[in-house]
Design a protein that fits this description.
The protein contains 7 helices and 10 strands. With 210 residues, the protein is α/β, with parallel strands linked by helices. The chain has 2 domains: 99 residues, Tetrapyrrole methylase, N-terminal domain (Cobalt-precorrin-4 Transmethylase, domain 1); 94 residues, 2-Layer Sandwich (Methyltransferase, Cobalt-precorrin-4 Transmethylase, Domain 2), CATH 3.30.950.10. The protein has a 5-stranded parallel β-sheet, covered by helices on one side. Strand 8 and strand 9 form a beta hairpin. The protein is elongated.
Length: 210
C-alpha cells in the first residue's frame, strides 16, 4: 500500500527537526506542505503547496500516485496541526505519523521552564472579542494568529501583575523575537506564542525590548 507520512518539522527552523523526520523526507517521492516548510526542507523530490483546508489538501493528495508522500507539518503533528483533518479525508494510503518538537516544548526550552503543569490555550479559531477565560495557573501558554496583548489581558490585571508575560514570534526563524511585555500596547500581526509564567525566569536566549 502507498504511504503518506505526516512529518513533524518542529517550529520551522532546519536545526529543530529530528533525524528520523529528516531521513524520511529524503526518501519521499513527493513533498507537500506550506511554502515556508517546503523551502526549508526541500530535497530532490518534487513539491506541491497545500491549502490550509484539510479537506482540500486531502483531495489533492488523494489524486497523487506517488508511492511515498511526505506532508510537512509545523510543530508536532499531534498538536494543533493539519494532521487531524488529513486523517479524516485521506483514502487508501497507510498513514504514518512522525513525531517532532511542538511549539510548546520549544517555548519552554527558550524560557528554561517546565511545561508539564502549564495550561495550554489555543485561540487560533476562537472569537475573543468579548474576552476568554484565563485560569489562575503558575504557567500559561497561549497560541494565537496575531494578537493585541494589552487588550487581551485587560480583564486579568491580578494574574498579569503577579507574573511575567513573554511574547514570542517567528519561532526558530532568523527573525525570531522573544520580548518581555512591559504593560504597554503591543500588537503582533503574525503567529504569536504568549507565555505567562512566574517571575525570574532564567533566559539564556537574546531578548528584545517591547
Amino acid at each position: 500500500m502507498n504511504k503518506l507520512y505526516l512529518i513533524s518539522c518542529g517550529p520551522g527552523g532546519a536545526d529543530d527537526i529530528t533525524i528520523k523526520a529528516f531521513n524520511i523526507i529524503k526518501k519521499c517521492d513527493l513533498l507537500a506542505g506550506s511554502q515556508r516548510l517546503l523551502k526549508t526542507f526541500r530535497q530532490t523530490a518534487p513539491v506541491i503547496t497545500l491549502p490550509a483546508s484539510s479537506k482540500k489538501a486531502a483531495a489533492i493528495l488523494n489524486k497523487r500516485g506517488e508511492e511515498k508522500i511526505g506532508v510537512l507539518l509545523s510543530g508536532d503533528a499531534g498538536f494543533y496541526s493539519q494532521a487531524a483533518g488529513l486523517r479524516q479525508y485521506i483514502n487508501e494510503r497507510e498513514m504514518i505519523t512522525v513525531p517532532g518538537v511542538s511549539v510548546v516544548q520549544y517555548v519552554a526550552a527558550k524560557l528554561n521552564i517546565s511545561w508539564q503543569s502549564a495550561e495550554l490555550i489555543c485561540l487560533h479559531t476562537k472569537d475573543i472579542s468579548n474576552g476568554f477565560e484565563l485560569p489562575d495557573k503558575d504557567t500559561i501558554i497561549l497560541l494565537k494568529d496575531g494578537i493585541d496583548i494589552k487588550t487581551l489581558f485587560l480583564r486579568y490585571p491580578k494574574i498579569i501583575k503577579e507574573r511575567d508575560v513573554w511574547i514570542m514570534t517567528a519561532l526558530s526563524e532568523p527573525d525570531e523575537r522573544l520580548t518581555l511585555w512591559d504593560g504597554n500596547k503591543y500588537i503582533c500581526r503574525k503567529l504569536t506564542t504568549v507565555a505567562i509564567c512566574e517571575r525570574e525566569v532564567h533566559i539564556t536566549q537574546p531578548m528584545y525590548p517591547a
